[in-house]
Design goal:
By secondary structure, the chain is mainly beta. It has 2 domains: 148 residues, Cathepsin D, subunit A, domain 1; 153 residues, Acid Proteases (Cathepsin D, subunit A, domain 1). The chain has 4 helices and 27 strands. The strands form 4 sheets. Strands 12, 13, 14, 15, 16, 19, 20, 21, 22 and 25 form a 10-stranded mixed sheet that branches. Strands 2-3-8-4-7-6 form a 6-stranded mixed β-barrel. Strand 23 and strand 24 form a beta hairpin. The chain starts with 30 loop residues before the first strand and ends with a strand.
């Protein structure tokens, strides 16, 4: 299931990122590439063609499968097959895309889960007031060992038969630090972090337009929060207030994050097994007893901080490079 939790934007959360600044460009030998853009809600958007028709797809490392709008399937020439794709405890019809092109990347016979907007609490954010046509999830990104440059907004896919690249030495020479990415047992990616000196994990989530901390972690570490005009829509459709917290001691891997303000949202509910959502993707809610101390989820590492730290996500070596 990919029901949604919206965070109503406060521009101050990412104004310092400089989204309009010119981004450096790069090429990777053995990889095809596509240029992405930023949507009005700070998501990364991939402009592609499905069977020759233009589409906009949101890039979401927090989704384990890729999705397309069911109401666009016929227009796009998507072939619906007699099988389902399961995610979030729900089965979705499967559509096969014969041809997908993005930049100089070219794919054939890709499977997408087909969804109705009502199933996910609304449209996937696209450009301006338009809904996106779907999203690219981890199934496709990991299959093609994608490299995502969150700052220059470039997306690379390893070409068939090409040798893999070890980016570590080159990234280190440019001042980047390497953080391991963990393929978590609950079908999302995490990176190690320290919040106020406590070891935990943050979910690597390009589907979250801002970094958000779990309110239970903030309370446990006695971090002061303040009210805001931000709101979050939960699984039950109810809109709840979101608080803000000034965080002065956060490290992603061994990369110290400058003191700044983050959103604080209810990611976990110890009372029942329900799901919470941010951006367009789900975050499954689990009781704390299911996590060891080092596994505890402290929040979502979202787009504004990934952009701020010039993040490069390498899904071949399962590494996050931060500057």
């Amino acid at each position: 299931m990919i029901a949604r939790r919206f965070l109503v934007l406060l521009p101050c959360l990412w104004a310092a990122v400089g989204l309009g600044a010119a981004a450096e460009r790069a090429a990777l030998p053995g990889y095809s590439s596509a240029q992405m853009s930023r949507g009005p809600e700070n998501h990364l958007l991939l402009h592609a063609r499905i069977n020759g028709s233009p589409v906009t797809l949101l890039l979401d490392t927090g989704a384990d499968v890729s999705f397309l709008r069911a109401d666009r399937a016929q227009h796009l020439g998507v072939r619906v097959v007699d099988e389902t794709m399961r995610t979030g405890g729900k089965a979705f019809p499967t559509g096969v895309v014969s041809d997908l092109q993005a930049g100089d990347a070219h794919f054939r016979e890709l499977r997408f889960a087909l969804y109705e907007a009502s199933e996910i609490g609304g449209a996937v954010p696209g450009e301006a007031a338009s809904a996106a046509d779907g999203l690219i999830g981890l199934d496709m990104l990991r299959r093609y060992e994608a490299v995502i440059n969150c700052h220059s907004r470039q997306l690379f896919f390893r070409k068939e038969g090409a040798s893999g690249l070890d980016l570590t030495r080159g990234m280190r020479a440019m001042g980047f630090r390497k953080v391991p990415i963990i393929a978590y047992r609950h079908h999302f990616l995490t990176v190690p972090c320290h919040l106020n000196g406590r070891l935990g994990q943050m979910i690597l989530d390009t589907g979250a337009f801002v970094t958000a901390l779990a309110d239970d972690a903030v309370r446990a570490f006695t971090i002061k929060t303040t009210p805001s005009r931000l709101t979050a829509r939960g699984f039950d459709g109810k809109v709840r207030p979101v608080e803000l917290a000034q965080v002065n001691d956060l490290r992603i891997g061994d990369v110290a994050i400058a003191p700044q303000t983050f959103a604080v949202i209810d990611l976990f509910d110890s009372r029942k097994q329900v799901r919470a959502f941010t951006g367009v993707n789900r975050i499954e809610q689990y009781s704390e007893r299911e996590f060891s101390p080092g596994e505890r989820i402290f929040g979502l590492l979202g787009n504004e901080l990934l952009d701020q730290r010039r993040a490069i996500i390498d899904l071949e070596s399962m590494s996050l490079f931060l500057k």
